[in-house]
Amino acid sequence: MSENRDQNTAEALEQPPVSVMPSFAMVNGAPFNKLPDDLYIPPDALEVLLDTFEGPLDLLLYLIRRQNLDIVNIPIAQITHQYIAYIQIMGELNLELAAEYLVMAALLAEIKSRMLLPRQPDAEEDEEDPRATLIRRLQEYELIKNAAEEIDQLPRIERDIFEVGVDVSTLKNVEQNLPDIQLKEMLLAFQDVLKRVEQLSHHQITKEPLSVRERMSTILENLKGADSLLFSQLFIRKEGRHGVVVSFLAILELSKERLIDIIQSEPFAEIRVRTAGTAGS
């Protein structure tokens, strides 16, 4: 029974395989497989034949997938015939073939020959399919090829994504327009400071005479070490109501002389004071 099966397999392999010749182009919807005899092609006029393959495994995988063949059950005789036909066409067109293409052709011929040999009855179960090694190589190559194609589809810098650079040295500082502060808001802030002073415990102290000009100098000195200060930070509570009034008058005088800016980040926010001309620094 085994001998009959081997004989039938050998006869099937010896039959001329159904080959699909690689076509040069499609003419009126039909593949154009043969060049006209009177067609003149200058030497080295054609450098690439149809698809560009990255190696013999790539060519084999193309032949298998083009015909929707099962990669684990390759019709070795049919694929070998097509592969060799493709190699011959490339040779006729004077295209240089890498040695690995010829090595693969020899390997396919060897596998085909081994499959034609009758199997020994006692070694039928243990003998490995001659195509097994080639199938494993094709499967591994296909996995790597598919992974490479997926990676190639990812966004790539200088192809899909372009970095944008801005020379910040040419940008000018844009001063934010702050809301105007009304005198009413200044008075409300002043009243708040007075209330805090009144909450302090009263005790008898000897008061030194306070000068508005001296307080103006003190405020300017305090502002030198900071970008800005809260309005309430410019008052010294322990000086009492008299000291608060002197500080308030000093602030108004400094603002009048354009030595300080009285600012507010937004309506109803806390009032701040800064040295004039320090915006954006």
The ordered H/E elements are HEEHHHHHHEHEE
> How far from one another are the termini?
98 Å
Helix share of residues? 40-55%
Number of helices: 8
Q: Would you report the number of β strands?
A: 5
Give the total of domains: 2
How would you classify the helix and strand content by structural class?
Answer: mainly alpha
The description of the largest β-sheet is: 3 strands, antiparallel
Low-pLDDT sequence parts: 1-19, 45-50
Query: Largest beta sheet: what is the strand line-up?
Result: 3-5-4
Q: How large, in whole angstroms, is the Cα Rg?
A: 46 Å
Strand content: 5-15%
Shape: rod-shaped
Report the average pLDDT across residues.
74
InterPro entries: ScpA (IPR003768), ScpA-like_C (IPR023093)
Pfam families: SMC_ScpA
Keywords: Cell cycle, Cell division, Chromosome partition, Cytoplasm
Subcellular location: Cytoplasm
